[in-house]
Amino acid sequence: MSRSMYFDKRAPHAESAETVLRRLRTDPHSGLSTVEADARLSNGRNEIQTKHAYSGWRLFLRQFADPQMYLLLSATVLSLVVTLSKHGGAPWEALLILSVVLLNAILGFLQEDRAEKALEQLKVISPALSRVIRDGTAQDVLSATLVPGDILLLEEGNIVPADARIIEEDGIQVTEALLTGESLSVSKQPAPLPLTTPTADRTNMVFSGTGILSGHARAVVASTGPDTEVGHIASLLAKAEKDATALQNRLHGLSKQIAIGVFLTGSLCVITFILLLPEKTLDTLIEIALFGVSLGVAATPEALGTLVTLTLGFGVLRLARRGAIVRRLNVIDTLGATTVVMSDKTGTLTQNRIEVHSFFTAAETISSQSSTGPIHTGSPIEACLLSAALANAANYVREGTAFKFHGDPVDTALWMATTHRGVSPDAIEARFVRKWRFPFTSERKMLSVAVQDRHRPDAIFLYLKGAPESVLSRSTHEMAGKRVTEITATRRAELSAKIDALALEGWKIMALARRILPVSTDQPAKPELVESGLTLTGFVTLFDPPRTEASETIRQMTAAHIRTILVSGDHPKTAAAIARQLGIESGATVLTGAEIERSNDAELQQQLRGTTICARVTPADKLRVAQLLQRSGEVVAMTGDGVNDAPALKAADVGIAMGSGTEIAKDAADIVLTDDSLATILHAIREGRIMAANIQKAVMYLFTTNLSEVGTIFLAAVASMAMKQAAPAALPLTAAQILWLNLMTDVAPAIALALSPARPNVMEGSGHRNLKQILSKGSVYQILGNSLALTAVTLGAFFLVSGDLIHRRTMTLTVIALCQCAYALTLQSESASIFRYLSELRWLIPAIAWSIVAQVLIVSFAFTREVFGLSQLNWQDWLLCFLATSSVLVLSECRKFLLRRQRKHSNLGVEGTASIPTSRATSHAN
């Protein structure tokens, strides 16, 4: 018998309990037989299956699927062939290139963090054992062996092991925050509901993973494993694939462009040289092949991947100090491009706890946070406080002079508020003797307790709390100051209108009442016999308080052109009220889960353009909203803490989980906030913008230096051909020497540029618009101009210096290494003199010093000279190299001076986009 026979399109919440039992062929009193349960278990265990993860070696091999890797591997093979065919010596050049390939692969492997832990964590939700009725007796069985038709016995403290239909209940209260995001407990009842009832409103169902706060119930298992609501979330989570980040896409695009450009340029040059050769001997063809290798290595920014990894790594450390744990390294840059933050309400914008706001009666209102004042005996406020304390199912323990309460969130909040007003558990125990108690039920929607007051032993006092409409309908009188007045039809309408108005403002309201009974009254058979003719004492308003920093953070996000969308399982009116408290302006009507479900993608995309509130949403709704926002060009960050948030957390560009949330949410997210603070999210976005902008500057540096190396090699080869030298044999740099430049003398300055301090206005404007591309049109022009200048200086060193080829290459390598360091200094500002900000380059100066020392060391030792094909330099050679380098600084200072004069005359005293302000007060920009 297939699983679908037990879980089909007929939703159990829309059927009567008898119909569900009949369809599942089970008895509510004797349950299934062991034989029948074992037979049904063959259709699937009550477990959630996970997909197979990549193995380690496959993950490592995947690092080589990159155009730059293909280029370097090709250069390795070609260099090895050239070396062995030419002289058969040690293939140092090929080994160096291969070491770069392996280094990049290892770094990529280490930063890869795509382990699919979320689905494994979903298994942990289910408890190990469950209490069921089988063969007519109550017994404990493994939760994994539950099948549709099993009769569950649920009691206070249980975790529900499967989705089940309530058959009968006695005051059961369930916490479903893990599934629905709603912090208030939910009462359950067995009556059928409309077919279209949303999951959060299915009060005749209990769901896998939720907890029983109080009461007990009997329920029939309707669905298990992947068919449960948690199982549906698991399937959504498995399908919610995350696209590559913006930086990854841009870098991958650059890598493709570089590879194509290098291949076309190199091929054209090689073909041209072959055609121009008068004699095409094997040696000349080998030299041309060597030229192609050198050109390809020169054009490839090998340090780019390492640079990004290390730079993002520093960002991860800085964010960790601020309480944001980054689980995926490359997500930081996406943070900077964020345009929409989809924020879960409970535990993210609010504190995920219930507080009493105020008690109010017909005559007065008292805030729960006001200073303690005298409570007059017999006053409505005293009656309200006594109802809140006595009609209460929460437990408490004494901790020194204070009390700790636990149980239903509303009951604990009521106890804390009454204690704050001076009505402590000690006072209650000393004054009252409990006679009987009627627990809360979903039909009555109230809880009552009968007590005898030692101050008035001549009567029995019945104190109640419950839903306003239920208590009001059973109340005939109202306490108004020292008088008790009859509730007229007009007054009843006034009270109902006030209750509706408070609900619209987002408050949860409970009514409090009492009745005085004769002292001889015994416990009645039914609560309805005494829960009538009540005297309304007042009301209490409760709320889930917003986090203190939420409003200010939302305001700052709005100023940074980041839209905040409140995504909640609450009623639309409650969600709108919370949004108003937080400063989230609604430009359109609240979008509900029902509207999301019946709208097609085009309609929903149009609606989402002006929507800032989504209410009564399901996990599938959250996932769909996030994906449609992404299709509209938005960069979406999603916050959440519950199981219901996990699919959207994974699918969003940036998933941000609260540290106090479920493990499922944390494992599906990219970032986990240890302090649950929205301010930390804003800081993370700021960090992302800083790092993306700095990476752009570092990339510009790498491209300029690499392009100057390409220009040097190409022009030197052309000059050699023009001067009738042996083909392109007299290349100024070898492939190994270029690798040295790219990895040892380029990386440190590039990283220092990427770690530059932030400019003061980094959060102004749209980060998405500013970070769409790594290199702007203006940056490309600047790269071309600076690379031509560096090429001219390097070619001068190669052709004007006397000596053999090895000595000239040594001079050329040294000059270009020093010139690149000087260029890094000039890159800090477009127009400000280097002398204005030199003392503030706390990262760049040590990086340049390292590059200079590294170059000195490679020339000083015999082994490194042999590996890289270099000669020793004397002090005159070094002096000449430094003089050639100084020309870069002189030319830069002259250009900046002319630019400053031009701007002064045109009254444009504004730095360019790649510059920093020249004043010392704002010198840390960029």
UniProtKB/TrEMBL annotation:
UniProt xrefs under Gene3D superfamilies: Calcium-transporting ATPase, cytoplasmic domain N, Calcium-transporting ATPase, cytoplasmic transduction domain A, Calcium-transporting ATPase, transmembrane domain, HAD superfamily/HAD-like
Keyword Nucleotide-binding set for record: yes
Cation-transporting P-type ATPase N-terminal domain boundaries: 11-84
GO terms under cellular component: endomembrane system; plasma membrane
Subcellular location: Endomembrane system
InterPro entries registered for this protein in UniProt: ATPase_P-typ_cation-transptr_C (IPR006068), ATPase_P-typ_cation-transptr_N (IPR004014), ATPase_P-typ_cyto_dom_N (IPR023299), ATPase_P-typ_P_site (IPR018303), ATPase_P-typ_TM_dom_sf (IPR023298), ATPase_P-typ_transduc_dom_A_sf (IPR008250), ATPase_P-type_domA (IPR059000), HAD-like_sf (IPR036412)
NCBIfam families (UniProt xref): ATPase_P-type
Protein's UniProt name: Cation-transporting P-type ATPase
Organism whose genome encodes this protein: Terriglobus albidus
